[in-house]
């Protein structure tokens, strides 16, 4: 089959790779209908997340049609149209039983690559480094879905593919980030980043009852989507002296009740702190540029909630003192998609959540490298590049 694979830092290629096969009795094979880019991919494309190998098929946000099932698969059948969360889960372990799905104990075949960094291994994920399991990704004609009964969710009739697609990763991540904020009537939620994840976090914050959502980014077309598609107020951080001061002014001096970081380790920034982070990142002395996260920590009101969706690894000068002395609650995770999918499918079926506006650019799989270049460089207002294999 044809697939888009990582060949080296900033080098993606399309080629012919072996078709996936049923390896375990709980597996299904999906014919991929749509697969899309995620900000998380940029971290290994740019070389900040290690343990990729040349030839690794990438992609983890996808939907498609079941074409083959293993003998133990019960709930999904050949011909079903399904969406699959990006983390692979067994459904049986202590973590799955507690709905902490991205922490599943049974789906990481190479824990020795993660335990030294995190203490314990997380769940595996499609197309996202060997440190996260080394599974083949979804930017391909076919993909193997282990534990198909837990991980395939039926797409509701009448909800088109390009809406269902984003219920795989961007929407559940954003929804989880808003859920972490324990939103109360009257709350103001600030969201750093207006990529797919940040926009879904903004929309979800309103769905969960926020009174005001304030979005922060520098890209005018993404800030426009935040206003028009999510109803957010916006701050272009290139146009203000200080995001923290601006947020204070907008909230009567108290600050947002919760702050969501939907930017992560490749934050853009200005000033001395950003220069320091960039040099250390280039020399591999730290992996992360922390501009957005530091701002969120400073801006959130005393006793507020910090919800971290952006992916991080190692950061220097992390303001733990502000977190401790201000009494902040920090909540973070890789997305627990299997927890949120039933709710999100219901919102989509009722027309309350339509993430299809994220699909700004469409490509054939053969054009994958160009799709990623546009997504990475945010060319032509690209929010997500969608591939139809
Ligand atoms: N927790 C999870 O399960 C999960 C799932 C998906 C993605 N992610 C992570 O979420 C983050 C965002 O993903 P995405 O797909 O939306 O990425 P993206 O690259 O499309 O969007 C990131 C946005 O952040 C903006 N930004 C950069 N620096 C900023 C700053 N200093 N202040 C405010 N905005 C800034 C960029 O302009 C861009 O619009 C990434 O780190 C990704 O790895 C996490
Ligand atoms: Zn993702
Ligand atoms: Zn499990």
TrEMBL record:
Pfam families: ADH_N, ADH_zinc_N
Keywords: Metal-binding, Oxidoreductase, Zinc
Domain Alcohol dehydrogenase-like N-terminal, first and last residues per copy: 25-148
GO MF annotation: an example: zinc ion binding
Cofactor field: Zn(2+)
Record-annotated Alcohol dehydrogenase-like C-terminal domain positions: 196-268
InterPro entries: ADH-like_C, ADH-like_N, ADH_Zn_CS, GroES-like_sf, NAD(P)-bd_dom_sf
Signal peptide bounds: none
Database matches in PROSITE patterns: ADH_ZINC
Domain of life: Bacteria
Enzyme Commission code(s) on record: 1.2.98.1
Zinc recorded as keyword: yes
Similarity comment: family membership: Belongs to the zinc-containing alcohol dehydrogenase family.
Protein's UniProt name: Formaldehyde dismutase
Organism for this UniProt entry: Tautonia plasticadhaerens
Gene it is expressed from: fdm_1
